[in-house]
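Lecture notes, unit on protein representations.

Consider one protein chain, 269 amino acids long.
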Amino acid sequence: MNLELSPKEFALFKNLIYQEFGIALSERKKTLVQTRLRKWVQSLGLPNYEALYKHVEQNPHELVLLADAITTNVTSFFREESQWLFLEKHIPKTYSKTKRLRIWSSACSSGQEPYTIAMFLQEILPDAHTWDIKILATDLSYDILKKAQQGHYRAKDLEGMPKKLMNKYFSKTPDGLYAISKQLKEMIVFRSFNLVTGNYKLFSRPFDCIFCRNVMIYFDKPTQEKVIDNLVNLISPKGLLLIGHSESITRHDARISSVSPSIYEKRGA
């Protein structure tokens, strides 16, 4: 069995990954791709990486497994503290009259982001039970979405979270994990969606807030611009787009303006 990824095989996967996920891989990523795909080749009993490529071509439903293999799902609760401080003032001030919120966590990974959003809203809105709140959480990977929907986390995943919130929104399971409360789960709908190739026309109504954090780092400039354009189209006037603190929107877009580092507001109608 040849487990050395040849230049030809790397080119095949590089083009497929870009075409399907918008992820641009440089030559420096060849070793990473080889390492990530080796177990998959071995588990299928294939002779080389080209055979794996043909397997994925013949079984397009397994493209999500390819996405799992070459991306890293790193997330945590209450990530990007400055954004939550901004939202703590912005949301009550902007939406207290209508008491209606539509939020999209567009790369939710294992669920920490959407559950943080739900927890956060319960904490900052004393009358949250009277609000019409819907949170959509999407990701490429079906496996990671299953974990998110289950909502079971290790003690390590909750490090840094105030004890008050742990006691209020989590319960200990017999196997030593922490299960998210039913109250928060009921606020969230989980779905699979590809930000690069997905059909944005599926979203019939705009969102008041879209989280798309630490996703753009995987894309080249044209793909970034395409994704941002689609996201901005789906934001309501005065709504927000939140990206990662290490990311920025470099192309001028007259529809949005920066209101805080990594936070952009859509101009009013």
